[in-house]
Amino acid sequence: MGQQEVYDLLRKYRTKWFNARDIAKLLDASFNTVVGNLKRLRKAGIVVFKKAYQVVEPAGKRLVYLYKFKK
Question: How far apart are CA 43 and CA 29, in angstroms?
């Protein structure tokens, strides 16, 4: 699984915000692989990201990055 699959998923759902766990579940891929790919896309300026608090099981409320396709 590469950056292209993550890019294509975000492009398909242009208006939705996803965290890395959601993307990993949708692509049926490893969480660590998705995080690495998102990091590279973030550095290249291809995706928009923001920090937000979400409930992450079983850890509770955590600060996570949310990603969206850059128009």
Answer: 21
Compute how many other C-beta atoms are within 10 angstroms of the C-beta atom of residue 9.
Answer: 18
Taking only the tens place, the pLDDT of each residue in 9-62 is: 999 999 999 999 999 999 999 999 999 999 999 999 999 999 999 987 777 899
In CATH terms, the fold of domain 3-69 is Arc Repressor Mutant, subunit A (1.10.10)
- Residue 4 phi/psi, 5° resolution? -60, -40
User: Which pTM does this prediction carry?
Assistant: 0.88
Enumerate the domain spans of the chain. Answer: 3-69
CA angle 12, 14, 15 (to 5 degrees): 135
Name, in order, each residue with C-beta under 8 angstroms of 63's C-beta and a sequence gap of 6 or more.
51, 52, 53
